Amino acid sequence: MKILKILLFTLVLGACATSPEARQKKMEERIRVAACIHDQIVDMHFRINVSMMHPLRYPPKVLTSPYYLEVIGDSVVSYLPYMGQAYNVPYGGGKALNFEGKVVYSDVRQEKAGKYYIVLDIDNEEALYRYDITTFDNGSSSIDIHTRERESINFTGTMECPDNP
Predict the structure, then answer these.
(1) pLDDT in tens, 111-155
(2) Which carries the bigger pLDDT value, residue 3 or residue 80?
(3) Which of 54, 118, 143, 157 stands the most exposed, by the fewest C-beta atoms within 10 Å?
(4) Entry pTM
(5) Which residues are 57's β-sheet partners?
(6) CB atoms within 10 A of CB 165
(7) Which stretch of 4-13, 142-151, 154-163 has the lowest confidence by average pLDDT?
(8) Which of 140, 139, 164 has its CA nearest to residue 34?
(9) Which of 3-12, 93-102, 103-112 is modeled with the greatest confidence?
(10) CB-CB contact of 121 with 111 (8 Å)
(11) Residue 85: what are its φ and ψ, rounded to 5°?
């Protein structure tokens, strides 16, 4: 019985060990993704695919449809769902968070190694929105959206990084 336990432990330990080549590949991939994320933020040309929304008054919800926020220079394409209370919106609900708009103000800061903070003020003819985006060098991102016409909402997702370096 003891021999079986020792053999099983050795087998599990051997399976968990990674080779130096595998660790090297993982490290190179992390460095490539971090550089890609940094370049996209500096160029203000990125896309964040959203996977969860966190409304203010409702429980978090996993999103199954492909929602995203895309920033290309001073233009923004926001294709995001909205759930919450609206205070002052056009008849029929308006555009909510599905619009193409222009960035009227932007600020990009690197708070610490591997963490970026982006502020975008966006005008879409209905309202002025503030998008507070926090992105890490592994691509994970959080988007906080504020406006005077609706309750705030938060989204989490991943910043795309092309496969080709």
Answers:
(1) 888 899 999 999 988 889 999 999 999 999 999 999 988 899 999
(2) 80
(3) 54
(4) 0.82
(5) none
(6) 8
(7) 4-13
(8) 139
(9) 103-112
(10) no
(11) -90, 135
- Kindly give, in sequence order, each residue whose CB lies less than 8 Å from that of residue 123, ignoring residues fewer than 6 positions away: 101, 102, 104, 129
* Greatest pairwise CA separation for the chain in angstroms: 75
Long-range contacts of 154-157 (CB under 8 A, 24+ apart): 154/53, 154/54, 155/50, 155/52, 155/53, 155/54, 155/67, 155/69, 155/80, 156/50, 156/51, 156/52, 156/54, 157/48, 157/49, 157/50, 157/51, 157/52, 157/67, 157/68
Q: Give the integer Cα–Cα distance in Å for 77 and 5.
A: 58
Residue 60 predicted with pLDDT over 90: yes
**pLDDT value at 17 more than 60:** no
Residues 6+ apart with CB under 8 A from 53: 60, 61, 63, 80, 81, 83, 153, 154, 155
Residue in the structure block whose two tokens are 């992105």: 135
* Cα 32 from Cα 73, distance rounded (Å): 23
